[in-house]
Amino acid sequence: MGRPFGDPAVKPIESVLESTLGKSFSRFGATLALAAAFSQEWNFSKGSGWMLKVHDGKKALLYVIPLAGCFRISMAIRESERDALLADPDLLAVHDRLASSKKFSEGYAIGFDVDETSDFASVESFVSKLIAARR
Fold it and tell me: Rounded to a whole number, what is the distance in angstroms from the first to the last CA of the chain?
């Protein structure tokens, strides 16, 4: 997976995102729609290139990193959120990934690569439940 948005002078725009993400562009839009109540702003990182930070003004809910043909959703979740999500029977599809997530000072790091073939229903459910926990 290449990082197509590595130039700090060229912020992603919708038409370029659509051509870069290809068939996963609709899932990119669906992800942003799930988090519509949160602020969304593009930030540049030397390691990741351009990424969309979705936040509540204080803490990031998630980062969306556009890649060639897909995108990555990356987040750090609190221990209490992790425990609640692990106990949720609707999230069995992501249980192993969540259980093995590495702990950092910001929380437990978890990410999902999304393309047109991935299990997007599980990702949507996970993000929806995380949003509900943050409200």
Answer: 33
| Residues in Cβ contact with 7 at an 8 Å cutoff, skipping those fewer than 6 apart | 49
| Residue 9: inside a domain | no
Q: What is the domain count for the chain?
A: 1
Is 8 within a domain? no
What is the reported pTM?
0.91
Q: Mean of the pLDDT values across residues 4-27?
A: 91
Question: How many angstroms separate the CA atoms of 13 and 52, rounded?
Answer: 11
